[in-house]
Amino acid sequence: EQKVFVEELPSISLSANRDTVCLNDTIQLSASVSQGQIRSYSWSVGESDEPTISTLAKDSMYVVSAQSRYGLCPTQYDTVSIKIDRPIDILVYAEQERICKTQEEGTILRVDRLGNEIGRFTWSDQSTADTLHVTPSQTTSYSVEATSLYDKCPRVEKSTSVEVREPLSVQLFVDIDDICQNGEDSVTLSAK
Predict the structure, then answer these.
(1) Distance between alpha carbon 180 and the CA centroid of its chain, in Å?
(2) Do 22 and 148 meet the contact criterion of CB atoms below 8 Å apart?
(3) Three-class SS of residue 61?
(4) pLDDT tens digits, residue range 98-139?
(5) How far apart are CA 74 and CA 76, in angstroms?
(6) Residue among 85, 160, 157 at smallest CA distance from 121
(7) CA distances from 100 to 30, 68, 91, 106 (A)
(8) How far apart are CA 162 and CA 145, in angstroms?
(9) Are 140 and 167 in contact (CB under 8 A)?
């Protein structure tokens, strides 16, 4: 009588401790076994025989492979996907950095995304557009906070100022009261 050993085909499942992270944040990947026994694991992010590994988030997909305890079954694989958020930067500026106090149309403040995917903008007045129309009556600073696409990377806050200048007051003084239309005379104008 001959005995045949039959190894049970393992079943593995890979998971991550977070589904969305900022680029280069640490994530923990864990492989769990629902049936069979595992001899060793191999990870797409580095070597470890452990069912759990920590790594810096650089890719959106991770793979684990597992060998059955006796190596008789085919290698088993599983994958997990995560979303990678990217750090951002912005530039905020006023279309006109200086305006006259009597300028009723004010100026427009704009945010340049600098090619970044932005989640949300919040201006100091709580508006959320990427432009803001302002009509300040005095020199004023405005700030805007921006979040990364998934709000997992550090927020960025930038500000700009609009300088409000008083209108010029000009007075002309003439040194002569009357002049003949056909006459020749010199007139001196002075301004203060």
Answers:
(1) 72
(2) yes
(3) strand
(4) 999 888 889 999 999 999 999 999 999 999 998 999 999 999
(5) 6
(6) 157
(7) 63, 78, 24, 9
(8) 18
(9) no
SS3 73: coil
Beta bridge partners of 30: 15, 52
Token readout for 67 is 């060998």
Whole-model pTM: value is 0.74
For every residue of 82-106, which 3-state class applies, written as one string?
Answer: CEEECCCCCEEEECCCEEECCCCCC
Contact 37, 8 (CB under 8 A): yes
Q: Are 139 and 160 in contact (CB under 8 A)?
A: no
- Nearest Cα neighbor of 59 from 87, 32, 25 is 25
Asked if residues 42 and 64 have their Cβ atoms less than 8 Å apart, the reply is yes
Residue 160 pLDDT > 80? yes
- Answer for the pair 151, 83: CB distance below 8 angstroms, yes or no: no
Structure tokens at 9: 């085909």
